[in-house]
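Duplicate of #3305? Posting structure anyway:
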């Protein structure tokens, strides 16, 4: 079986010491906002677009950017993590994976107003580090770890 891979961007959005997660019905897991990178997008722009669509918020990405430029090169904001995620496993073989550019982002509100067709606002929850720990059995270990790291990093900004 050939493995299909798609590029995606994810943002652990943080406000006032908590990160926003929703239960993804198709994958049956709690996840932050994110989605596929369009053909004409770079990862950080896709990350911001996904947050705007899913939460109605404008994130300020915590993403280092190097000062490397030339006539044919420009630096772009770097994700905090690159992850290879198994999405579809059948009979022990991976059929589909996501190459995930994971960013942290600060937002100025917890008022979630998704675009039409997105997950309803009431499906989102804000998780503090304590909430992530307390509900760790319901969450993937990477979601707990990265959520905690995002909250800490945004708090230092």
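Output from current build:
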């Amino acid at each position: 079986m050939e493995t299909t891979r798609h590029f995606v961007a994810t943002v652990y959005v943080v406000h006032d010491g908590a990160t926003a997660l929703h239960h993804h019905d198709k994958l049956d897991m709690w996840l932050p906002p994110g989605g596929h990178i369009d053909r004409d997008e770079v990862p950080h722009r896709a990350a911001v677009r996904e947050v705007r669509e899913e939460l109605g918020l404008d994130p300020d990405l915590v993403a280092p950017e190097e000062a490397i430029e030339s006539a044919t090169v420009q630096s772009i904001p770097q994700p905090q993590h690159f992850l290879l995620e198994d999405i579809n496993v059948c009979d022990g073989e991976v059929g589909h994976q996501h190459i995930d550019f994971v960013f942290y982002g600060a937002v100025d509100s917890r008022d979630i107003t998704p675009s039409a067709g997105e997950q309803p606002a009431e499906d989102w929850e804000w998780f503090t580090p304590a909430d992530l720990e307390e509900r760790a059995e319901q969450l993937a270990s990477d979601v707990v770890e990265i959520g905690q790291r995002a909250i800490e990093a945004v708090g230092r900004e």
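Confirmed duplicate; merging threads. The chain has three helices and eight strands. The longest helix spans residues 141-156.
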